[in-house]
Amino acid sequence: MREGLAHWPVTLLFGPRQVGKTTLVEGFATSPNHYFDLHQAVDRARLEESNFRILDGLDGIVVIDEVQEMPALFQKLRVLTDRRENATRFILTGSVSPRISDASAESLTGRARRLSLGGFTLEEIGPENWERLWVRGGYPAAYTKELEEVSMEVRQHYISDVLTRDLPALTDFKLTNEQIFRFFRLLAHHHGQYWNHSEVAGDLGVNSRTVQRYVELFKGMYLVRELPPYFENMGKRLRKAPKLYIRDTGLLHALLHVRDRAGLYGARQFGASWEGFGIEQLLSIFKIPEEHAFTWSVQSGAEVDLVLTQPEGLVGVEFKASNAPRRTRSMTAAIEALKLRKLYIIYPGEKDYPIDEVIQVVGIVNLTRLESLTTPQKGTA
Q1: pLDDT at res. 106
Q2: Which end of the chain, C or N, has fewer beta carbons within 10 A?
């Protein structure tokens, strides 16, 4: 954040609701008058009634929280940042990316540093707490509760608020609340599976275009991650469907009614949950942009959960929810087909061990120390 303020007129901070964006940024505001929370009517009025001219007289650092509520701001900020004499710095936060991304990309190109903030990671809470993080997810209010049942209530309320309050305001494709909840539960049951818009549309009784639109909205609200298939001049019959994941496993478990550790270890989606947890942690900890992350599968059965494009070559990552993972024929086929320079197997354990020169087994507690992952980061809007 400080680096962005030093070098860019605007810093954009994206992330889901309730992960601590406001707590992080409000202290940067030069004074209370330099802080605007656009969920508050009084702050929206301060900007709208002055036609944004109030910003002209503010020096130092101005913080505008939940900027997606006022897309017209971006054009004003472009004008302000183009003035050579203007040394004011702006921090903008947003919980929804569809409107923000479109507006900022057009109006603030070359003027903004883009950052992201998600839930807790192993790097922040300590690798020894991996199991609690997996079960409860990374939203601070859910992770920190003393009792499991209270944590579950927090997550259930979060899902309800997002689906009934935030989501309907973002689209003209109107589903009923019942359809929206059913759709999100379907996503949970398809977590870690190859996704087919048409099949889900048939289950919901809507058209494929509506399903695609809502998936994009869920992605834009940082609720769902899509891993596209990796393919590059390969002759084999590749599976070209993407995989979808509920990004926070705490929300996933709330949707699946998995209430605690015992319930998780007995759940049908145990392996898929582990896969999603590992993917989200790895991509977050190593700050790997989504355009460098893929999945790979051929119709004969060989597959890799996660393929990362790296400057030195492709890296594969498998997530195995077993105590002592071993090499499989699928791994051997993937190494040959993709010419992987490294294949990591991440499992719920503590000990690392090599299988050969390419395949390395890594315990989840050592994930933060994983070597050989150096992916260029996104910087500007």
Answers
A1: 66
A2: N
Could you tell me if 5 and 24 are in contact, meaning their C-beta atoms sit under 8 angstroms apart? no
pTM for the predicted model, two decimal places: 0.91
Task: For residue 78, give the nearest of 99, 61, 55 by alpha carbon.
Answer: 55
Q: Contact 184/286 with Cβ under 8 angstroms?
A: no
Q: What's the whole-number mean pLDDT along residues 206-230?
A: 93
**Cα 56 from chain centroid?**
34
pLDDT, the chain, mean: 90
Q: Shortest CA distance to 58 belongs to which of 46, 66, 68? A: 46
Q: Which runs of consecutive H residues, i.e. helices, occur in the chain?
A: 2-7, 21-25, 41-48, 73-81, 97-107, 122-125, 130-136, 140-143, 148-161, 177-189, 197-204, 208-220, 249-255, 261-265, 270-285, 329-338
Give 138 or 82, the one with higher predicted confidence.
138
The residues facing 37 across adjacent strands are: 65
Mean pLDDT of 128-142: 97
Burial zone of 299 (CB within 10 Å; 0-12 exposed, 13-18 middle, 19+ buried): exposed
Domain residue ranges in the chain: 2-116, 122-369
What pLDDT is attached to residue 90?
94
To which residue do tokens 């992987």 refer?
340
Of residues 139 and 378, more confidently modeled: 139
Considering the domain delimited by 2-116, tell me its CATH architecture: 3-Layer(aba) Sandwich (3.40)
